[in-house]
Every structure is written in C-alpha cells, then in structure tokens.
Amino acid sequence: MPLGMIMPGAGGCKVVYVCREPKDMVVSLWHFLQHVHPDLALADVLDSVCSGAVPYGPVWDHILGYWRASIARPDAVLFLRDLARFVGLPFSDEEEDAGVVQDIVKLCSFGHLKPLEANSTGQLDPLVPVPREALFRKGVAGDWANHMTPEMARRLDEIVADKFHATGLTFQ
C-alpha cells in the first residue's frame, strides 16, 4: 500500500514496512490473481508490473516512498528488539532470558501463520471469490527462479536498477 494512503504521522501512528524482492512479489501476485483469473499468464502480470498498471500504482513508487520516509526517520529501520522499543514495549532482561524474543519470532513465522484457521478458511471478501489461503503460498524467498525465464528476470532487474540507482537500494 502506498505510503500516502496511510497518512503517516496522523494521530502518532507508527509504520513498519516490509519490502519484498520484486521478482518474488511478481510471482506471488501472479499466484494470487490466478484465484480470480485462472488462465492469467505470468508474462501478463510481469507486463502490468513493469508498466505500473497494478492496484495502488507502480511498486517502485511504494518502495521509494517508504525509503524516503526511512531516510527522514532513520529510527524506522528496525530489528525485533528495536521494534519493541519503537512501539513502546521494550523487552525486559527477564523476558529476553526466558526466550520471549525467540517465541515471538516463531509465532510470527510463515510456518505458524499459514495453518491458522483465520488464514486458511473462508474468503477474503464476499464479493471477490478469493480464498483466504491465497494469501499464504510457500513462504520461500527466491521462488521466482522456478517460474520466470531468465529474460523475464533480466527485464525486471533492469527496471529495478533504473528506478533505484540513485538510492543505493538493491535486492539480492
């Protein structure tokens, strides 16, 4: 979701942004959209992403918006312990010693979240025939390599490099 849609700073809200590798994002979007359009080709989704014709606009604009906000507020790039302090709930020494941090990481893991009933049953919206389970697929970074041709990957990599060259942002 674009930064401008959440009105940062309004009401003292805090924002945590997770940015995915663009090629993985394209494959994930393709799998998701196939629940509505089963015959949709990956090449067509890639074309839409590359041209910026996707819901909420070009993904580069989202990433750059959050990146600029993180430069303005460098305390926004956080690890779990820093995130706890960021939201005003730091871990005590006792909690850290008791393994609370590791427990939270486990509870937030893909493997724990995917099978939860709230994530695996029903539909996202009564008007759109997309099952909730469509939000969780594999949870593996780099799966794009199993779906994209080298030319598709090169095309997206070139656009990403062009869009982010002045920022130093890269994806591995």
From TrEMBL:
<protein>
    <recommendedName>
        <fullName>Sulfotransferase</fullName>
        <ecNumber>2.8.2.-</ecNumber>
    </recommendedName>
</protein>
<keyword id="KW-0808">Transferase</keyword>
<dbReference type="InterPro" id="IPR000863">
    <property type="entry name" value="Sulfotransferase_dom"/>
</dbReference>
<dbReference type="InterPro" id="IPR027417">
    <property type="entry name" value="P-loop_NTPase"/>
</dbReference>
<feature type="domain" description="Sulfotransferase">
    <location>
        <begin position="13"/>
        <end position="168"/>
    </location>
</feature>
<dbReference type="Pfam" id="PF00685">
    <property type="entry name" value="Sulfotransfer_1"/>
</dbReference>
<comment type="similarity">
    <text>Belongs to the sulfotransferase 1 family.</text>
</comment>
<dbReference type="GO" id="GO:0008146">
    <property type="term" value="F:sulfotransferase activity"/>
</dbReference>
